[in-house]
Structures are given as structure tokens and as C-alpha cells.
Specification:
- This protein is of the alpha+beta class.
- The chain contains 4 helices and 9 strands, in the order E-H-E-H-E-E-E-E-E-H-E-E-H.
- It has one domain: Small Protein B, Chain: A, CATH 2.40.280.
- A 7-stranded antiparallel β-sheet has the order 1-8-9-2-7-5-4. A two-stranded antiparallel ribbon has the order 3-6.
- A hairpin with a 2-residue loop joins strand 4 and strand 5.
- The N terminus is likely disordered.
């Protein structure tokens, strides 16, 4: 008898900022488009992207993605000088930018990217309006996560 292997479901996710969920309380999420060069799209298709220490800057009524790292492929075109950490423009409506700017100007709020993903043939960025967690909040969240993990193990063992 042949061994059955499960095929992983096709995921549209390119990169996830896991640190953001640990460091911040997420208040609201927004979807934004991303302006990319051709070599960046090819690198994203290969999964060569990192969102750690990335943040959103709003300047002159435009939103910018700072600190993201898209590693250029070796096979990228030779006539283009690839800058892996360049500032990339986010595509948002003026009303969304104004609302974000109003919230960010409040004390304690900032805007960070949560993930990059494919929507059709376009790259989208999931932004979050966040408020920083205190150390005791992080500890409580870790404690809850550990308890949920233990609870699921106990239930799994009892159902065997």
C-alpha cells in the first residue's frame, strides 16, 4: 500500500511580521497596495522578503513602507541596481491616509505592516494600527498561549 502524503494548501502569504503581534496590541487593520519594481516582484514570488523591524511612515499625504528587505535574485536583470531596503510607496485612498494620520498623532499609536500577500496578481500589504504592549502584557499573552497549548495537548490525549 502506498503512503498518502498531504499536499500543503497553496498559500497567498509572502511574508509575515510575527514580531508585531508580540510587541503590539492590534487595534485596526487595513489593506494597501504596494508599488514595486519588476525584480522585486520576481523576488517576492520566490519568497525572498522580510518584514522584521518594518514600519509605516506618512509624509506629504503619502504612506511609505520603510525597513522591509526584499533580497534580489541572482538572475535579476543586470542593468538594474537592486536596493533591497529601499522605501516603497503604499497605495491608499486619501481618506484612509488622513484617518491613519489622525490616529497615529494620538499618544501611543503607530502603524506597522503585518503581512505581505498575493491578491490575484497584485501584492498587498496588511497594515495595522497598533498600540505598544507593556512587559507585563507580553508575559500575560505568553502565559495564555502556553495554557492554550497545554489544554489542547490534554484534550488530544484524552480523545485517543
Amino acid at each position: 500500500m502506498g503512503k498518502k502524503t498531504k499536499k500543503a494548501p497553496d498559500s497567498n502569504t509572502i511574508a509575515v511580521n510575527r514580531k508585531a503581534r508580540h510587541e503590539y496590541h492590534i487595534e485596526e487593520t487595513i489593506e494597501a497596495g504596494l508599488v514595486l519594481a519588476g525584480w522585486e516582484v520576481k523576488s517576492l514570488r520566490a519568497g525572498k522578503c522580510q518584514l522584521t523591524d518594518t514600519y509605516i511612515l506618512i509624509k506629504d499625504e503619502e504612506a511609505w513602507l520603510l525597513g522591509s528587505h526584499i533580497t534580489p535574485l541572482n538572475t535579476a536583470s543586470t542593468h538594474v541596481i537592486a536596493d533591497p531596503t529601499r522605501t516603497r510607496k503604499l497605495l491608499l485612498h486619501k481618506k484612509e491616509i488622513a484617518r491613519l494620520l489622525g490616529k497615529i498623532n494620538q499618544k501611543g499609536f503607530t502603524c506597522v505592516p503585518l503581512s505581505l500577500y498575493w491578491k490575484g496578481n497584485k501584492v498587498k500589504c496588511k497594515l495595522a494600527l497598533v498600540k505598544g504592549k507593556q512587559l507585563h502584557d507580553k508575559r500575560a499573552a505568553d502565559k495564555d498561549k502556553d495554557w492554550q497549548r497545554q489544554k489542547s495537548r490534554i484534550l488530544r490525549e484524552q480523545n485517543k
